[in-house]
Amino acid sequence: MPIDVNDVMRLLCRVSKVQGMTAALKHSGQGALMAGCGAFLGGLVGGPFGIAVGGAVGGLVAAKMTAGQFKPVPQIILELTPVEQQRLYEDAHAIIRNLDWTDAAQLTALVMGNAGIQEQLLTVVTNYLTTQFRAEIQYEK
Asked: What is the Cα–Cα distance from 88 to 106, expressed in whole angstroms?
């Protein structure tokens, strides 16, 4: 039975919330921007040597900015772009498509009552976040 992308995102949010799943995303774009800005400013001040030093300092600042910033995975899932949510949906749908259910509420109850399916969905979320965002994942439980 087809299920809406938003329903699957809510299901993944529920499963990851129950497990106390948090993640720290490594914002490679943000790090590159900080390193580039540092290199540019270093070049203005100190020429070629300043570029190298400025780039290194910018990279360290970027690493410090993102280090240890863990957010709840449900929040991360809801902040994904529609394209990113569609990719995650496709991975999760491969697990739930063969289950027998009639609506989103029944599917959620079925998944929440089956530790094996929950584990498979958590693996999908973990793999997606670590592959796409180089995330570091933590569990409360």
From this structure: 21
pTM of the entire predicted model? 0.70
Mean per-residue pLDDT pooled into runs of 10, the chain (141 residues): 88 96 76 54 60 56 60 96 96 93 91 96 97 92 61
The single-letter code of the amino acid at 102 is T
Burial profile 61-82: b = 16 or more Cβ within 10 angstroms, e = fewer: ebeeebeeeeebbbebbeebee
- What's at 56, amino acid-wise? A
The single-letter code of the amino acid at 139 is Y
The closest alpha carbon to 31, from 83, 66, 6, belongs to 66
